[in-house]
Design goal:
The protein is built from 21 helices and no strands. By secondary structure, the chain is mainly alpha-helical. Helix 4 runs antiparallel to helix 5, helix 6 packs antiparallel against helix 7 and helix 8 runs parallel beside helix 10. The relative contact order is 0.05.
Length: 550
């Protein structure tokens, strides 16, 4: 059996190749038949394969480009994520802003609201807003909106500060000043000393403005206004300062002004006195000068209640003003005398005078200029000037200037004497003109000089003696009268005139108080006067009117 199996296998092995060839041919034919029968499918499969290869190549290229663009895509996605996060944050902020819209709107309107409060005078509300903004700015120093808001509020605060200082420069009473200083302290711009200094500066500006509004062209009215201003307002300013700033030298140094009020007050008083010194010489009336003195004394006495009594500094100023006024009036009187004397026409005028004895008796009771001086227009003009000077002196006559003013009057009288002597030495007068000139000199010694002494005595008790003690002033005129009387020769007279001459020779010659004898016979002067009246009546009327006007 085994042998049969082996023989079978061997037979199979020998037939196997042939079998395999037959199968291969069969398969080949089948394949050809299938290929012939399905050649379209094979062609389509081949085309598809070619297309697939091309597509695979294209896909490979696109994959390479995709790989190249993947980093950009990654970065773009990252940027998108970041921008999305920012948008989310902004959205959250906008949502928060929307939720706090009313609060933020109120905060942003604070500068405008504060400016409105300042304009309407609601300073407490304005300062409350300013304090709130300062607090918010301190809490959020890094927020630009808050810092911009704080800057606007600071500008409005400066406007508030300027307005408060401007109120201090106006006529503000103590309650208003207290409120203003309280506001300034809340603002905190000045320390205590600077605030005191600023208060005094503002009040001084206000006082200066009042004085600048006065009319300086009228010295009297200007001084009245200045004195009244200082009497009322300077007193008020000192009291306001003391009420607002309480000095406490025992406490901290912040409450002590270091004498600031005293320095400021002394500056005001010094300025007041300087103005008086400048303006007093411009006052030309003694009554006005006296009124200014009374008001100044009253002002100083009122300021004495706050320690600013300056009455002791006034006498020297007014003494100088009185002396200048009197000297000016006396110089004017002397100048007018010289002008009238130089232009005077020596013609006799109607006799309107009285005897020296009667004049002396009347002068004891009345200081009216003697009417006999109307015969001598130069003397009448001089006496009118002296009377005007005395009238201006009488309302304000300082006792300390008694001797000085007496010397001024004596100087004026001396100038008149010198003018008369110079006139006599430089002018050539005819006989009748010389008599009239000597009569004027006699009237000066007998009437004008005593009258000036009497007027001065009415201003100062005992002042007449000071003037009368200066009789040596008219010694030159006395010698002139004496020499003229000696040089005059006796005239031959007719039988009809012998009786008159003998009667005149029997009469004692009148002697003037100073011991100077008259140089011209009064009877002859009277006759010459009557002759002149008959010849020059129109001229006499004009001269008489001049004398009356003088």
């Amino acid at each position: 059996m085994l042998f049969e199996s082996g023989s079978c296998l061997l037979f199979l092995n020998e037939k196997e190749p042939e079998l395999l060839r037959v199968d291969a041919e069969r398969i080949q034919r089948q394949m050809q038949e299938v290929a012939v029968g399905n050649y379209r499918a094979f062609i389509a499969a081949a085309d598809a394969l070619v297309a697939i290869k091309e597509e695979v190549s294209s896909i490979d290229k696109h994959l390479e480009s995709l790989i190249t663009e993947i980093p950009n895509l990654t970065s773009g996605c990252t940027e998108f994520i970041e921008s999305a996060e920012k948008i989310l944050e902004e959205r959250k902020m906008n949502q928060t802003l929307l939720g706090n819209h009313s609060t933020l709107l109120d905060l942003l309107e604070i500068p405008q609201l504060m400016d409105t409060c300042v304009r309407n005078g609601n300073y407490d509300e304005a300062l409350d807003l300013e304090a709130y903004v300062c607090k918010v700015s301190t809490m959020h120093p890094n927020l630009p909106v808050i810092q911009a808001l704080a800057a606007e509020v600071r500008q409005t605060t400066q406007s508030l500060l300027s307005q408060l200082l401007q109120k201090l420069r106006s006529n503000s009473q103590l309650p208003e000043c207290l409120r203003i200083i309280g506001y300034l302290r809340r603002i905190g711009v000045f320390n205590e000393f600077e605030m005191r200094l600023q208060f005094l500066r503002c009040r001084e500006t206000w006082l200066t403005g009042i004085l600048e509004d006065l009319d300086q062209r009228n010295a009297y009215e200007y001084l009245k206004g200045m004195i009244s201003c200082h009497r009322m307002h300077l007193f008020d300013v000192v009291n306001q300062y003391r009420a607002i700033f309480a000095d406490d030298t025992s406490g901290s140094e912040e409450n002590y002004d270091g004498g600031l009020l005293f320095s400021w007050a002394m500056h005001q008083i010094t300025s007041h006195l300087k103005t008086l010194k400048v303006m007093l010489p411009k006052i030309t009336e003694g009554g006005s000068l006296s009124n200014i003195l009374d008001q100044s004394m009253y002002c100083a006495m009122g300021l004495g209640w706050v320690g600013l009594d300056f009455r002791g500094l006034l006498p020297s100023l007014f003494e100088e003003a009185v002396l200048n006024l009197f000297s000016k009036n006396m110089n004017t009187a002397v100048e007018n005398f010289q002008l009238v004397l130089d232009s005077h026409r020596w013609v006799p005028l109607p006799a309107v005078g009285f005897s020296a004895t009667i004049i002396g008796e009347e002068s004891q009771e009345d200081v009216t200029p003697p009417s006999c001086l109307m015969e001598h227009p130069p003397l009448a003009v001089f006496i009118n000037g002296v009377s005007a000077a005395m009238n201006e002196l009488r309302p304000c006559a300082p006792v300390s200037l008694k001797n000085v003013l007496a010397q001024e009057l004596i100087k004026g009288l001396q100038a008149v004497c010198d003018s008369l002597l110079r006139y006599n030495a430089t002018r050539m007068l005819r006989e009748n003109e010389s008599g009239l000139f000597l009569s004027l000199c006699r009237a000066f010694i007998e009437v004008a000089f005593p009258h000036c002494a009497t007027c001065f005595g009415r201003c100062y008790p005992g002042g007449a003696a000071l003037i009368m003690d200066a009789k040596h002033l008219y010694d030159g005129i006395g010698r002139l009268l004496t020499i003229s009387s000696v040089k005059e020769a006796p005239k031959p007279v007719s039988n009809g005139e012998e009786k008159t001459t003998s009667e005149n020779s029997d009469l004692p010659q009148p002697v003037v108080e100073n011991g100077v004898e008259p140089a011209v016979d009064e009877t002859e002067n009277a006759n010459a006067d009557r002759d002149g009246e008959e010849q020059n009546s129109p001229t006499l009327q004009n001269d008489e009117k001049l004398g009356e006007a003088s």
